[in-house]
Amino acid sequence: MAEREQRVTPLELFFDLVFVFGVTQVTNLMSDDPTWPGLGRGLLVLAAIWWAWSGYAWLTNVLEPEEGTVRSAMVAAMAAMLVVALAVPEAFGEHGVLFGVAFLIVRLLHLQLFVLAGKRDADMLRAVLRFAPPSLVASALLIMAGFLDGSAQAALWLAALAVDYSAALTGRGEGWRVSPAHFAERHGLIVIIALGESIVSIGIGAAGVALSTSIVAAAVLAIVAVAALWWAYFDVYAVQAQRQLSELSRAARSRFARDYYSYLHLPMIAGIVLFALGLKKTIEHVGDPLATVPAVALCGGLALYFFTHVVLRVRSVQAIRRSAAQHPGWFGFGRPAATIAVLALLPAALELSALTALALVTAVCCALIVYDLVHYRGERTQIRAARP
Length: 388
What we know:
Layout: H1 10-32, H2 36-62, H3 68-87, H4 96-118, H5 122-145, H6 150-167, H7 180-206, H8 213-234, H9 237-247, H10 250-263, H11 265-284, H12 292-319, H13 321-326, H14 334-344, H15 346-351, H16 354-375, H17 377-385
Helix pairs in contact: 1-2, 1-3, 1-7, 1-11, 2-4, 2-6, 3-4, 4-5, 5-6, 7-8, 7-9, 7-11, 8-16, 9-10, 10-12, 11-12, 12-14, 14-16
């Protein structure tokens, strides 16, 4: 079966629109309940939606989504995913069962299409059949969780996600296919979508608020910070990961794609969503100190984003030792320092005005970019020049 190396199709981008709405719903869920339990519920829902989206990213990597039958099934999956997103605000309340049932339909359509793709690849079909039972069990647990509440409901959610995420560990990557350029581009686009959610949060936070000098200043600082997050990922990390993906054998490539993209992009997306929550609350209360949860979201979201980059680098070095030899210490200090710096600003965010806190974390983001440009100029040029 030939590997698919075309660009992301319009249908895939169209499909991603429902994921955009789902992420927006998660941010609204946490914003409406800015407590520790509310934050935890939002992150659980995000993990479920991410895993569903990730499954379709793997699917369209090997199956042409524009084919007639596949196109119809993708549209049906979009409809089911839209219902999932609509149910997000009450996923732990009155719409819990609806969320679970719609999620099950999303997964059933995904598995059906993967079986179709596996008819041309026996190894892939075996991998899909290994993956199917845990996926269905996880969906069933989410439906059961909809009938419960409190700690029992949260426990079932955690169990469902544990079953779902651990299913990808079976088989050591055997049977799956990954087309590097398409796979990397698909995940790069979803990172941009998540960053876009931060920009949307700025607008939502400013809705109904007088457009004062402080609001304008906060909006400008926010867009600078979001741009720094974009730069930190796309300037080198996205390029280097795609190149490494293309150099690995089939099974090793699948394992790297699973770890680097499916697993480790989740905390990075979660960090962006938390930062978006912090931005929304900053715009709403620009002259006052942030409450505890929004302050943690603002500083902790950035810390999670930058720390995930550290872990991505570790996984990258493990995948291709030769890359570590070519680029010793690449980004070895900047991101750990940025992680510590934004966490150290948390006490200030609780005492100073939200605008001042945003200015401080934005300064850290900009300092990281300057550090990368100055200290790794040669390595950066070398990696970007070798982009596939």
